[in-house]
Design a protein that fits this description.
The complex is a heterodimer.
Chain A (H helix, E strand, L loop, with lengths): L1 E5 L7 H9 L3 E5 L2 H6 L2 E4 L5 H10 L2 H10 L4 E4 L1 H4 L19 E3 L7 E6 L16 E6 L1 E3 L7 E6 L3 E8 L2 E4 L7 H17 L1
Parallel strand pairs in A: 1-2, 1-3, 3-4, 4-11
Antiparallel strand pairs in A: 5-8, 6-7, 9-10, 10-11
Chain B lengths: L4 E9 L2 E6 L2 E7 L1 H10 L5 E5 L8 H13 L4 E4 L5 H10 L3 E4 L1 H5 L2 H10 L4 E8 L2 E4 L4 E6 H11 L3 E6 L11 H10 L4 E4 L5 H9 L4 E4 L1 H4 L4 H11 L7
Parallel strand pairs in B: 1-4, 1-12, 4-5, 5-6, 6-7, 7-10, 10-11, 11-12
Antiparallel strand pairs in B: 1-2, 2-3, 7-8, 8-9
Helix pairs in contact in B: 1-2, 3-5, 6-7, 8-10
The chains are: A alpha/beta, B alpha/beta.
């Protein structure tokens, strides 16, 4: 199965790409809107800011390609800043694709960035996080999505308060942590994601 | 609660792992990505590759090491050592490093931190600070810079650093414990995570660093000699009341 990863110039997509290969799919890092439209699964990943990421997507017309996919109910998954891009305005500046309602807020905690391994609470059934309630995964972020609709939340994490760690809603999925850097638990998330996308 | 981290540091010279005492008397310890994978299997939470190559001509291999590490590792890692500015740091991040640790280039020109944070996010920008007697030193500990390390760490964070890698040159390689006074002072002064570095001899030292406010403890010689020590250290920390990642 082909997975198109939107390349908006945020650098490090190599680790995710290698992890997807281990999950048994064929990742393609691309700036081609057509490839984003056609792949069975499209992903937004990378690091940096919502503002520069959104601008990077728009520069290549990838934003419209992703919106079209979402409107047609075809799977789109975001990792880290990619998950934030599914949402609306960010306190960091800029605005995401608005595919899910809600802002992106600055993490308020004694230590920011929220950096390191933290435990997922995934009490409700979700395809994405099946078998991962209580698993430790790796986070590295200073901003986090705050969905308007709590029903989209698939997992949370505690960092001096509750942060949204993953969302799953119809054909949209997002994880705030880095599955490609989360050992065996992360590998399981990517395998779940691939399975989810063929059923979504 | 985010777990405290145990981070093996691999000093890399011209593509090989080495370790010395007080930054001198280097001994060769193996192939970096191989050793890294071993640590990952043994439960390392994160890794640091520090390029301590002495010459400009020897710097090529580190990009190859970082690229292979990005492909093969399933835990995060930082690349540092000898970064001269934004260009070097970008090369390492684009090669696949999750973070870069910048030492002298940041001290000489703190806007380097700001530029990198703007492009990659501050979570990818680690400011490495070496200190002797609380004073910032650079050039592998040879050059005192006349500035208080706590003061510099505060500015580094304001400029864009998302983490501080704090090494006590006095304690480095001694296995007599981290510089707790310095660690506590910096951890209290900044909001970002602090990685304590230099002097780890046993799990008690690491627990002391966590107690002093460090989010992570860097270790080198104690695990390079016997990598199986790593899971033992984590079990001892867990027993001492510091939950480790599972």
């Amino acid at each position: 199965m082909r997975v198109a990863i939107a390349d908006y110039g945020a650098g490090n997509l190599r680790s995710l790409s290698s992890a997807l290969v281990r999950a048994g799919v064929e990742p393609v890092i691309t700036v081609d809107p057509e490839a984003i439209r056609e792949a069975p699964l499209a992903m937004i990943a990378g690091v940096g800011h919502v503002e520069s990421a959104a601008a990077g997507l728009a520069r290549h017309g990838l934003d419209d390609a992703l919106r079209e996919r979402a409107a047609a109910g075809r799977p789109v998954a975001g990792v880290c800043v990619g998950m934030q891009l599914l949402f609306g305005p960010s306190e960091e500046g800029g605005e995401g694709l608005g595919l899910l309602p809600g802002p992106v807020r600055r993490v308020r905690a004694r230590r920011v960035p929220h950096m390191g391994w933290n435990t997922l609470a995934a009490p409700r059934a979700s395809a994405l996080l099946e078998g991962l309630d209580g698993a430790d995964v790796y986070f590295a972020h200073s901003y986090a999505a705050a969905p308007d609709d709590e029903d989209v939340v698939a997992a949370t994490v505690d960092h001096d308060g509750t942060l949204v760690a993953a969302v799953e809603a119809g054909s949209l999925a997002g994880v705030q942590f880095h599955p490609e850097r989360s050992g065996r638990a992360g590998a399981r998330v990517l395998e779940n994601l691939v399975r989810w996308s063929s059923g979504a | 609660m985010v777990k405290r981290r145990v981070i093996p540091c691999l000093d890399v010279a011209e593509g090989r792992v080495v370790k010395g005492v007080n930054f001198v008397n280097l001994r060769e310890m193996g192939e970096p990505v191989e050793l890294a994978r071993r640590y990952s299997e043994l439960g390392a939470d994160e890794l640091v590759f520090l390029d301590i190559t002495a010459t400009l001509e020897g710097r090529g291999p580190i990009l190859d090491v970082i690229g292979r590490a990005a492909d093969e590792l399933t835990i995060p890692f930082t690349a540092g050592g000898g970064i001269t500015g934004v260009g070097d740091a970008r090369d390492l991040l684009l090669a696949g490093a999750d973070k870069v640790a910048i030492n002298r280039a940041a001290f000489d020109d703190p806007t380097v931190l700001t530029s990198l944070a703007a492009e990659f996010g501050s979570q990818a920008v680690v400011c490495a600070i070496d200190a002797r007697g609380g004073e910032v030193v650079t050039h592998a500990g040879r050059t005192p810079r006349g500035r208080d390390a706590v003061d510099w760490s505060r500015e580094a964070v304001e400029r864009g650093a998302g983490e501080i890698l704090l090494t006590s040159i006095d304690a480095d390689g001694t296995r007599a414990g981290y510089d707790l006074e310095l660690t506590r002072a910096v951890a209290d002064a900044v909001e970002v995570p602090v990685i304590a570095s230099g002097g780890a001899g046993d799990a008690g030292h690491m627990a002391d660093a966590f107690e002093a406010g460090a989010e992570a403890a860097l270790i080198a010689s104690i695990v390079h000699e016997r990598p199986e020590r790593l899971p033992e250290l984590k079990a001892e920390l867990e027993e001492a009341g510091w939950p480790m990642r599972r």
